[in-house]
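Journal club prep, notes for RB
We'll compare a predicted complex against what the paper describes. Inputs for the zinc ion case:
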Amino acid sequence: MLAIQGIAEAGSGHPGASLSAAEIMGTLYFRRIKHDSSKPNWGERDYFVDSKAHSAPAYYATLAVAGYFPIDEIKTLRKIGSRLQGHPVRYSEQQKHHSVPGIEYSGGSEGIGLSVSIGIAIAHKLDGKNNRVYVLIGDGESNEGQVWEAAMAASKFKLDNVIAILDRNRIQQDGFTEDIMPLDPMRDKWLAFNWNVIEIDGHRVEQVIDALNKAKQVEDKPTIIIANTIKGNGIKHMTNNPQWHGKAPPRKHTPILLEELESECLIAPSIIAGERENYDEKIRKAERGGADLVHLDVMDGRFVPNTTFSANTIRKLRHITSLPFDVHLMIENPLKHIRDYIEAGCDIITVHAEACDESEFASIKESLLSKGISPGIAINPSTDIPNWIYSYTENIDVVIIMSVNPGFAGQKFIPEVLPKMVMINKKLREHGFKGYIEADGGIDDTTLQQVYDSGARILVAGNAVYGSSDIHGAIIQLRHKANVALERRLIEHASAIGIRSEWIKIRRHILIPLANELGIEGELHAIE
Ligand code: DX5
Ligand code: ZN
């Protein structure tokens, strides 16, 4: 979001490339790279080389959030006198007015970053250090012969401390990579150069983490992670369109674009629904259907009148998928059991406000954060959110607002929770909450629009998914409904700021198939 804000403010930049590499950079800086923003020259740090450099806005945004410079400075992107120029410049004391701490490499001339990374990596080997060099390369710059010379050198020197990530978005400055200079079969090429090759979806953070973990275990070979990405990901009318390689969106569109990036909706099938057990199969089917999370309902027969499974089952299920586990603990005294769930491999752990007090929650949250697990808090339909929650907003990633009384899947949605959801969402945001509101219970294609409009962005769906004979189709249908809900919101936003027909026009290739559901057939016709 910061990247788009900066580009729109500057009136120039590369939105597409920033959006294709956003998850990769975020995962590197917040989950992988050894670094310390208070000591940018720390001798034990890992290096990051942004070879493609066109993703500079995303890079700056990541560094700002990581604490290297004030977030507000993003607004100076590409302005005369700013440290944040179109292509990042390596930081040095002498150049401190032209660059920001943390940047190790001056990009812009394409095809060179891998060679520089190899130099750094060889130096580390000679010094007996085990820091790694992560290098982001673009597929456009892979046209350069120097990339392939570097590839040969890295395997000759057995540089297992080099981890390259290829942002494979298939679009370069003037068009599609395969038209300009075909690169495929990319995987075979790197294998032939004797690299360890891992191929992933570069927008799935869990896959990026997984690949980086695997790369760390490889010895005597460099690794390349081919991250299949989408240029312009997250802003639908920019996706996969070469036109948006280097064009800034009009400034008046910024609030709607930011809303779109913020309005991404995650679908979390709840595996206790439908036929009993058979969890392995249910998780596999959810993954195939394109679910974003797996929702795991833990019930102890005391906090709720039903028993499901506990940490042991979760541990056994962990190897089935790399999809994040969204674990909802409906148990008494969660603090007592939290360690078991931490060790089981959960990614989000949510406890009920009714089951713990402020000090217990504070200890739970600390243990989770220290292990990189997202903390969540849940409240029942009839519970008012306790006020102490607002003092933890910066550290809570998920707030589950139950839309049924917990205990069983397949219950009827309670619409009375909607105004509460709106109110809580508003108040949480006022207190700096940056996480997700999760709606849990009775979500299906008839209730989805309302919970979406009330602010929920993680949607748990039990019966709507596993009660169906076509699990894959059921997930796709929910996703479609969420898309319609999003487009409706964006159009309303555009109307409110007086650019409705301009928005519908720029977005028409997305809106045409939804015109009927959105009731905008006439308007689209007039535009054509
Ligand atoms: C209720 C659980 C929910 C529920 C979801 O106690 O927390 O996750 O099972 O299932 P549906 O969508 O069927 O209400
Ligand atoms: Zn649940």
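Talking point for the session: The CA atoms of residues 160 and 222 lie 4 Å apart.
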